[in-house]
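for ur thesis appendix - Receptor-type guanylate cyclase gcy. copy paste whatever u need, i formatted it the way the template wanted (i think)
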Amino acid sequence: MSENDLPWDDEVSVTSSHYRNSTTSKGQQEASSSYEIAKQESRRVFKQKVLVLLVLFLAAVAVSLTVFFITRNAETDEFEQHFHGGAHKLVASFESIIQEKIGSIGSLCLAFTARGMMEGGVNESTTTSSQNKWPFVTMDSFHERAASARILSKVLHMSVLPLVTEENREGWEEYSVKNGEWYAEGFAYQMELLENGFSLQGTATDDNARARLLQDYRRQVLATPFRSRDPRRRLSNTTALAEEEVEEEPFTLFQPKIFEYTPYWEIGHPAANETPFFPVWQSAPVTALDGINLNVRSFPDGEERLDIVLGGEFALGGFLTAEPGNTSSPDYSTAWYSELLSTQAGKPVDYGGDPLIDGSYPIFANFNDHNEVVGALNFQFSWQTYFQGILPDNARGFVMVLENACDGAYTYVINGAEVFLVGSGDMHDPEFDGHNVSTYLADSLVIHDGSRTGVKINQRGCPYAVHVYPSQAMFKEYHTSMPVVITICILFIFVFTAGMFFIYDRLVEQRQSIVVSTAKESSAIVQSLFPTLDPSEFLSPNQRVKSYLSGGFDKNDESVKPIADLFPHTTVMFADLAGFTAWSSTRDPSQVFTLLQTVYGEFDCIAKRRKVFKVETIGDCYVAVAGLPNPQPNHAVIMARFSNECRKKLEVLVRKLELKLGPDTTDLSMRFGLHSGAVTAGVLRGERARFQLFGDTVNTASRMESTGMRSMIHVSHATANLLVAANKGHWLESREDAVMAKGKGVLNTFWVFPDRNNSDKTTKSTSLEFAQCSKPPVGDPDAAQKAEKTERLVQWMTDLLLDRLKQIVLRRRTVQGTNHGASSSGAITYNPNDCPLKEVVEAIKLPEFDYNSMSQESPEAIDIPRHVAVQLHEHVSAIAAKYNDNPFHNFEHACHVTMAVSKLLGRVVSPDIGLDAFKKGEDAHRRVLSHIHDYTHGINSDPLTLFGIVYSAMIHDLDHHGVSNTQLMKEDPSMAKKYKEKSIAEQHSLDMAWSMLMDDSMTGLRAYLFGNDKSEVLRFRQVVVNIVLATDIFDSELNNLRKSRWAKAFSESPATSNNNDMRATVVLEHIMQASDVSHTMQHWHIYQKWNRRLFLELHSAFQQGRMAANPSKFWFQGELGFFDNYIIPLARKLKECGVFGVSSDECLTYALQNRAEWEARGKEIVLNLIEEAEHLSVQAPVKSPVQTTYSASSFSSFSVLDTSVSDSSCSEVAPSLDTDVEV
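the 3d part is after this line
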């Protein structure tokens, strides 16, 4: 038996093994015990930290809130005191104003009473008035007396209205003719007061001059007493009517007979025999529109007011308003109101729509008897002037609503002594309804005019009221940011204290980390000697998923089990950008990613706030889930609200992004699809490990999205049941049509409207109605929306041109050492005499390569002055306004063309081969830039040329007249003669835009654009002329010249300086030509959009008799011919130019695809277009002329061009002359 066979050796081995295992277990237990102690201690310290921070936080909040409310309440009290003090002062002044102001009018009426008694031989003690001379009374020095009364009462105009009966009518009419000299005397008096400086040329400066003027005026007005031209021609030398003498119907200034008022101020209608009459007599101030002998009782409210006067009461009328205007307004009320205001101000004043008030005060026969009325004093005043000067200058921001129970209300703003009209209606801020201070004008109020009893006010059952409110401006003046500042200071002290606490805590942790690190090293040495268990083995699958999402596992560690689990209660959302593919086909890749990053970045923020888990983005599709990794009982409600908020956010974002990304961005919308159920979630390991969802729930959610509608949230029956269970059934609306989903069969689905309340269950969402529209509206959209879109396009165009302008200024600064344009006062103006076609050249001379002009600085560093940017914006706005509202040739299409130009310019590429040889040596950088300049024909080296082609794209269809050049010659022979019957529409657009750019208001823009260098102006003009005229593609003579020049420019011969300029010119014009029809070389949806608009435009022209052939007959075949003979060859030549890189391939690919799609579906599309056009023609039979430069033959066969007209002067183009680069 050997030693190894002894039985006790096995026992020793077992004992040794047991000892090692027990030692390991004991060490592990000790380590675990130490870990627990450390864990408990850390927890205790952490609780103490939280307690300290909580105490600091509560103290800071308590102190800051206390101070905030104390200071805020003090401000509020001061605001209340200021408002109520001013408001009660205005209210208290309301009745006293009427008594004081109208009382001075009553005093004048008493003077008339005395005048009548004196002329009739009646004295105050007389008991009867039979000897009273009324109505044959004319007061001496009336204008002096009236002027005093007008100053005291602040009335604008007053007229004496004697009471005339049928018995004394004939005598009165004879009396008024013989005693009309008071009119000229009143005018002379007003001249002395310089109140007529606006009325006649010159001013009397001495007594002789005044006498001569009075004599001339008497001869003019009274010698030919009763007929003169429209008096508004004499009202103002600053607002005169047209200079040419136009014969008009005579206007009667003095009528020998009492006549009636008519709505259109037609003179000569004798007054009816409805007595008594109240004809206009002595008036102050004298105006050309007084209408002497006009029976005021014939006015719409005249009979009611004057009947009140006959009862011995003061009749206060309602609001008198008219359209705003000046003394030359065709509305006689407007003209008269403007003349009254001008007379009061002593200078021309336009009437702004401020309401005036009519009042009629009785004139009695004597002082004892207030029952016999012999006339009335009619006057007009403005409430606005009555409230001026009541409040001190520091009382600002009061809103006063003047209300008449019958005529509505007007709103004023009172700033100190000044009163401003805001507008018609009660326009106060509803936020201040509780601060209303009001008063009413009582009918019991008596005007004390100096008589014994006074005169009572009668408001005809329509009492006046005044309501005073504060404004936001007043509120903000007294509610400052001081409470917030104090609160922030206190919070800053808290943050500082907390920061110092954390710094101290950090120092302690660093010390503790040294101790812990030493302990870990010791423990690691011991633990490394013994096997350990993987802690992840003790985690449940659900916990493993959470740990992965929080970064707790190595994503690519394949040594551990797969991270996956089943989540039974989730809601999955798929959201897809509708119209994105077509939109992206017109943009640069950078613009596409700008859109996606902006939109999905905002969605991520919303998801984080609503605790929704974003899974991934696949192209333009956004996938998210609610209910994992943490369970959420209301996951369906959370996802519905998340989808709704994303939909609203997208609507806001696309409006903002359109200013940066260009037209049609606001057309983008989203489809949302939701489904609820179980999903398998896990991590697919590999090169790019990522978290993913699997299962039928995901597939169904995708089907909900793909079968949904734009701007709608589409949910399955399962999700709808969860919403009903969560008491959100009022959000749901059953989809009327069943959905056939791939792999699912027929599904009953629902639309979700989370904004809907319980009371809105039967109301359909406007979003649903919008989404169900399969075609965009053709007629004019809502005016506000259309103006908003146009302004966004104008701003986008302005920003685009501003970026190009910065490049020009940067180059000028690099070369000349200046960062600004020349003085605006010296801005060059260039207006050629010849037609633009004569200016076209074979090759545009571009600047030679200049290394010193190549700046490494970014153009964004250039600061364009605000006035230059404003002028550029105004210029673009003016251009947009000159575009006619056509379906196709409009400003939106010009922006689409400009966007295509910008995209092609951005694709002018640099050579990608042979550059290694240029990267060595001291002047390597210079040689590289020189090679790039030559390769791109110098296009990218000249910012002025780049600005010119973008500008040309913007203006190329300006003021398009809606017909071809041949038709335009028939409709506008003067324009045809001006442009020698060649490229008429194109030359007209260019001339109009150039004249707008050369206007005096654009001096600052021109100074920065050209630097006051005439050669720059001429070169820019040359670029614009060549590029704009390149859009005339239907002139056979020009087409032949283009073909010849193409062969010469791109021949096999080496490139010379002149040849390189010719190539650059050809490339630039090709960019413009391709951009003008870019919709044919873009996504099918873009092509369909503009093809539809063009058809509707041509069909409308045909219906108006402005086009020979019906487009319905040739549209299908014409489009095929247009593709074969123009579009596809043009796309191929873009590739032959060699400078557009992959863009040329993209254009050709889209052109071929659109051509094939049109050949397959075109006939069906044409039938739909015909039906739509006929439907529109029935809806709108009368429509302004539409515009197009295409003819029927141009689409049926591209080779058949309009060459019926030629010219002997402007069209004498040499063989080398270029107007268009034709394919």
